[in-house]
Amino acid sequence: MVSPKDFVGRDVITVGDFRREELLFLLDAAARFEDLVGPLLAGRVVATLFYEPSTRTRLSFESAVGRLGGRAIGFADAGVSSQAKGETLADTVRVVEGYSDLILLRHSAEGAARLAAEFARVPVVNCGDGAHQHPTQTLVDLYTVRRELGRLDGLHFVFVGDLRYGRTVHSLVTTLAHFQARVTLVSPPFLRLPAEQRAALETLKVPVRETHELAEAVRDADVLYVTRIQRERFADPVEFERVKDSYRVDNELLSRARPEVAILHPLPRVNEIAPEVDAHPHAAYFRQAHYGVAVRKALLALLLDRATEVLR
Amino acid sequence: MSRGGGSPTYKVSALPRGSVLDHLRAGTALRALRVLRIPADATVTVGVNLASPRMGKKDIVKIEGYELSHDEAARVALVSPDATLSIIREFKVVSKSKLSLPPSFRGLLRCPNPACIVHQERVPGAFAVESRDPVTVRCEYCERSIAEEQFEFP
To answer: Which of A269, A163, A274, A257 has its CA nearest to residue A215?
Structure first.
């Protein structure tokens, strides 16, 4: 039995911090928060420390705080933070904990959120740490799948694109073990899912298939999870040019898939989904971005102990 | 360590002062030496693939005139978790202990992942042991698995 009190004051560093029952509780809570606007977080201040660029995660969190009557403070560019003066992350969070009730952190270094949580006395939520994890995106992804398909258990997920550096994939793929999913991984060889995640999937007994053939993989997909090949993660521009247009989802490809396949993308997209796909009834990526606000409203209210009334 | 009755005799007790690492996993003696910071002029005797009733084969390292520190013993445990360390003074074994590899530890190693936050902050690495044979640890920050051949010592 999960209760709202189970979430109060918790750090959210990796999605592995949550049990299946807790994940389902969070998704149910998000549904209750979808249309909710009110002063639940009145007087509360949330700090957004974004050392790396972000549009959706930062804006959806700021929107969530604003719609619940709280206030967001922070920066969206490491150049304007004290990091530019040589301050360590540990010192920054020890300062900011005195200004805020919760810290939202995005950082280019893997493990940054874990480190921040060790030093901060207020909850820290990982909003992306390098190629490592992006747990709130996983909550949004799960929420979107359930909203689009009406269920989460026993689905076939096809992941395509940059599976090596894509932290949203790293967060989501192992979480699927909670939902008896089948997983197909489609990527150029250079951008395969890292060995750690492949080993974790094997340990978790998630059936996994790897292929280069997207057209064949989509045939019985329930969810097609598309990711951008991220220029900023490549040290070698030649390597990026070689793989950047490896896969493209268009209507011709989707004609081979089930009509009800849900198409997700954490966004931003570049060329990997053709604009014509936007009209597909199950092109869910813009709705997915919007659901981010509901999920983040619920999460903030739970962590700050303001959700009990709403969820009663 | 000495044995009678025609068994091999390693004459450890003949050391006036020093350290003996015994029951090292076969083939790990040279790696164990690499993780230590023993003086360049120390006399070191290495035995590789020696017969052992308990282990089948084992390695042994004798270091004359130098006593391993607690930290150094902990580093050897990362290479060969079940080894024993004897400290010798005036030809006598004054302490004998089995090395231990705790389930998690701080310091000792540096995470080899250049993208890990520990390289930007003034914090010691934190690790959890994933497997003892072969030894594999996981960085508590970036969660990368690190095999023994990738170990970097600060």
So the answer is: A257
